[in-house]
Amino acid sequence: MLYSLFKSVAFRRDPEWVHEQTLKWLKRTSKPGKPHWFTGAVPEKPVEVMGLRFPNPVGLAAGMDKDGSCIDGFGSLGFGFLELGTVTPRPQPGNPKPRLFRLPEHEAIINRMGFNNHGVDHLLKNLADSGYTGVTGINIGKNFDTPIERAEADYLLALRAVYDKADYITVNISSPNTSNLRELQKGDAFTSLLSSLNRTRDSLAEEKDHRKPIAVKIAPDLDEAQLDFIADALLQSGLDAVIATNTTLDRTRVEGHPRAKETGGLSGEPVRERSTEVVRGLSRRLDGKLPIIGVGGISHPDHAKEKLDAGASLVQVYTGLIYRGPRLIGDIVRALP
Ligand SMILES: Cc1cc2nc3c(=O)[nH]c(=O)nc-3n(C[C@H](O)[C@H](O)[C@H](O)COP(=O)(O)O)c2cc1C
Question: Does the C-beta of 117 come closer than 6 Å to ligand 1?
Fold first, then answer.
């Protein structure tokens, strides 16, 4: 009710402005380690994945708090884990505005943010200043002006930078808003990136006496042969998990909408089924050897159940939070067996 009221006012304003104001408000009205009054406490439904204990399997998806500017705020909403970022080695402004669009008729969003962020050091400072003690993933990407042939260097730089502070690290090679990024999901570029990441992580693990898990985040726009290849490569790689999926380029489900032709990635309800299919396809191929984090179009407890039934061990939400509000988190957790 209260969230519907907020939405009716907020949806008349610019989406990115609302996003910024909402994060500021959440930051102001939350206390580290205390449940937010808006959501109340969320019960524990602990799960163990990637060797980490999650108080519940519902996480914040990457992109909502790219700079970690509101960690205590999101921590107060009852998430089982937060994925911060995508963060790049150096700060960058992202694409020109406007770059974020609502498609309310479809409970969807199109974004072409382009990894706007203040750089990895800024995120680490925010994390150090926060009082959040829950599970923290840090999602890393490459700078837009790093040539794709040198992408590996950016990922390794970011991996080294966040290694001590992240509970797990996500390698984002599936954003449609950084030119050619998705090419890293293919062929030698993919296998070579995975093996460099694994080698660097192993040497960091030895040096620091602590092995941190690495997850790879993939796109929904992959055919069966590409999924075969990705699953095989992941199983060979020594890496620890896969996140499925990022936003889609496919506009079939929003055809005819005035915003449908905006460049960028589509999220929310129109990507839900495809993301679930990718989770199911991966689950069949990985056969329990590598955990899957399911994300895409979750805006109801039944949608989270679909992802878990398809083989995900954890789920994440982004667009569903915008359309349904933060009580969605507790609603999902309470509906879990
Ligand atoms: C505005 C916006 C920004 C996003 N930024 C990122 C990002 O920086 N890194 C990333 O890995 N995913 C990013 N995503 C993708 C989400 O994390 C998620 O994978 C995708 O939106 C599907 O989930 P959803 O339907 O619940 O939103 C972004 C999504 C949106 C809507």
Answer: no
Tens place of pLDDT per residue across the chain (337 aa)? 899 999 999 999 999 999 999 999 999 999 999 999 999 999 999 999 999 999 999 999 999 999 999 999 999 999 999 999 999 999 999 999 999 999 999 999 999 999 999 999 999 999 999 999 999 999 999 999 999 999 999 999 999 999 999 999 999 999 999 999 999 999 999 999 999 999 999 999 999 999 999 999 999 999 999 999 999 999 999 999 999 999 999 999 999 999 999 999 999 999 999 999 999 999 999 999 999 999 999 999 999 999 999 999 999 999 999 999 999 999 999 999 9
* Sign of the dihedral defined by the CA atoms of residues 309, 312, 318, 321, in that order: positive
Q: Is 62 a pocket residue for ligand 1 (Cβ < 6 Å)? A: yes
Ligand 1 mutation target, pool 250, 318, 319, 323, most atoms within 8 A of CB: 318
Residue 175 annotated in active site: yes
Range of the domain at 282: 2-335
Rg (CA), the chain: 18
pTM of the predicted model as reported, rounded to 2 decimal places = 0.99
Please measure the distance between the N-terminal and C-terminal CA atoms of the chain and give it in whole angstroms: 26
Q: How far apart are CA 269 and CA 65, in angstroms?
A: 21
Return d(Cα 254, Cα 269) in angstroms, integer.
10
Q: Is 328 in the pocket of ligand 1 (CB under 6 A)?
A: no
- The DSSP call for residue 92 is B
- Specify the number of domains making up the chain: 1
CATH classification at residue 57: 3.20.20.70
